[in-house]
Structures are given as C-alpha cells and as structure tokens.
Amino acid sequence: MSEAGHQTDHEAGAKKAVIAALFANMAVAAGKFTAWGISGSSAMLAESFHSVADTVNQAFLLLGMKLGKKPPDETHPFGYGRERYFWAFIVALTIFSVGAVFSIFEGVKKIIHPHPIENATITFVVLGAAMFFESFALRVAWKEFTEWRVLNPGPLWEGLKVSKSPTILVVLFEDTAALLGILVAAAGIGMTLWTGEPVWDGIASVVIGVILFGAAYFLGWRTHRLLIGEGATPADRERIREAVEGVPEVASLIDLLTLHLAPQEILVNLNVNFADGLDTDMVEGVIDRIETRIRAAVPAATRIFIEAESLRSFIRS
Questions:
Q1: 37, 84, 78: which is closest to 61 by C-alpha?
Q2: Last residue within a domain, chosen from 194, 228, 262
Q3: How many CB atoms lie within 10 A of CB 217?
Q4: Model confidence over 52-100: pLDDT tens digits?
Q5: 198: which of 57, 72, 114, 182 fits an S-S bond (Cβ 3.0–4.6 Å)?
C-alpha cells in the first residue's frame, strides 16, 4: 500500500481499535464485578475498576476524535486537531487516579486486613474470558501500529516514543496493562488458594496498581509532549528534505521546521535558498512544485509555508 493509502486508512483504523477496546472493556468490566461480588477478591475488585476506567477512557478517545474534526475558524485557524492529544492526556490521568491509586489502596487494605476468597472458580472463568476479549482488542490496535511502522521503521520502543497517534498508543498500553493485570490477578488468587494466605490477593492488587502507574506515566509523558507541540518523525522530516532538495532550482534548504497539528496534520515551514537567476514568477512556479512534491512524499503535510531566502536577501540589500 502507498503512503497515501496508509494515511487515508489511519483515522478509520484508529477508530476501529478504540471501538473494539470499548466493547471489550464493557464486557470484561461486567464479568469482573460479578466475580468480585461472589469471591470478595481485592485483586478482582482492582481489575473491575481497571476495566471501568478503560471503558470511560475509550469514550474520551472517541470524543477527542470527534471534536478534532471540527473545521478551522477565526479563533482556531489551524483547526482543532489537538483535541485528540488533550483527551488522551485526560485518559492518562484517569488510568493513574481511578486505576493505579485505587488498586494500590485496595491492595494495601487487603494486606492489612486479609480475608479469604470465596468461590474462586468464578474468578478464573472471568479472568480467562477477559484475557480473550482484551487480546482481541490489543490485536486490532497492534495491527494499526505495525502498519504505521512500515513507513517509520526502527526499534519498537523508538516507534512508541515517536508515534503521533495518541489513540493507538492509549489502546496499546491499556490493553497490554490489562493483560498483565489479568495474569497478576490470577497468580495472586492462585497463591492465596495454594498457601491459604489472603495476603497474596492484596499483593496482586498492589502489583496491578504499579503496572497501571507505569502505563499512565508513559502515556502522560507522551501526550504532554504532543500537547505542547512536537515536530514530524525523523522519517517524515527526511522525506520532506529529499522532496525539497530534489528540485533542481533549489540551491539549499536552510531551515526545515515542522509541527504536528494533529496525528495526520503537519505544518511545514521552510526557508529555501533558490538558485541565482530566477525571477519572481519562476520562484512561484518552483514553490508550487516543491509543495506538490512534499504532499506526494508526506500526505499529512497539510499546511506548507515557504520563505525564499534569496528574495529576502535581495529585498534587504
């Protein structure tokens, strides 16, 4: 698939990943609360609130995607694309406050005041079903992320740090944390049944909280950087540079400044030194060709501003 095709499908793919995660978390939350009510497991209660937080988070992401589509106006001439970043940041705060803090609190309470788990069989059944649903949602998000990495190759961790799609990042980290939480909850309940010590159930809840804290920290750090303004990926910057320098009339590219207005909207500001002997009409034609080449190389470059250094120097002289 061409880069243009990847760019066109990105928004639909991101929305698909969020909707898949939304329905998965709704089903999982209902099952976990049922299992907690029967068993009294603190790890299961922590997992229940974890799934509720994830469900609310998917709604936040969908809201951000909807608001981000508002067209530019006088007060926001570059549009509302950063709504996606804002609501993703809210998601990170929700994971921390509702998920991590509550899980650690419940775990500590269970460690201090342990009580036995009743009818543990239902908890394992629900955790098994939860793993199935969460794995499905994670698979959808991972597919979208790997398609993005085709155009942005490199180590996995570097890809996570430079991805401009907070929607995909949130779903990836939420579902990964959810799967790890399920395994920890199962281990804690299993250790409680094996040893007869309910304290293991509380320890599992604390560990789940630590996992959620890690996910919340990364997502908060990443979306904060996007909110305050971040440039294009190194791969996109190199494509833009090659597109500009491939024009024969360009003597040199002095400055290349980029800014992500939204996951698929890049502002490009260029300071170009044109070859000698070009008049104003010729420069205008070259600028048009530069813009065409940039958009062909990086379709997300929706706003391009080009400053002719040679003309500016001529005016100053």
A1: 84
A2: 228
A3: 14
A4: 877 888 888 888 888 888 888 888 888 888 888 898 888 888 877 777 8
A5: 114
